[in-house]
Amino acid sequence: TAEPAPPARPASNTEAPTLALLRQSRRAADGGDLAGAIAYVERAIRLNPRDATLWLALARLQLQAGQPARAEQLAQKAIALAGENGDGQGDGRRAAWLLVADAKEAQGQAEAAARIRERWRTYRG
Of 10, 14, 90, 24, which Cα lies nearest the Cα of 57? Predict the structure, then answer.
């Protein structure tokens, strides 16, 4: 008789908790609690520190919280991770670069922001 196939391996032990934390973060942000939203994403990052989308989410929240320099640093981290993680990250890199542009503009660096936007405006991954 044929042996049964091994059970499917879950994608990640941390995937469900990470998604739950992101939902909580979204609810907190929607309710105006940016500090709480940031804390939830930071917890998700502790579970999945190499997930570029989490770093990008944290960067967006920091920009909303009026911390453009911190947002720029976090978006740069997302860019680095998206590059390391390979395929399928082009849209994430584009979004992260556009967030860098927003952060630079918020810091009074309009020329640098415009150059970044021009480069990534038509990017198609």
Answer: 24
Task: Say how many domains are in the chain.
Answer: 1
Q: Residue 66 sits in a domain of what CATH number?
A: 1.25.40.10
| Residue 117 structure tokens | 């936007």
3-state percent helix, strand, coil for the chain, nearest multiple of 5? 70, 0, 30
Give, for all 125 residues of the chain, the pLDDT tens digit: 544 443 333 345 668 999 999 999 999 999 999 999 999 999 999 999 999 999 999 999 999 999 999 999 999 999 999 876 554 556 788 999 999 999 999 999 999 999 999 998 876 55
DSSP summary character for residue 20: H
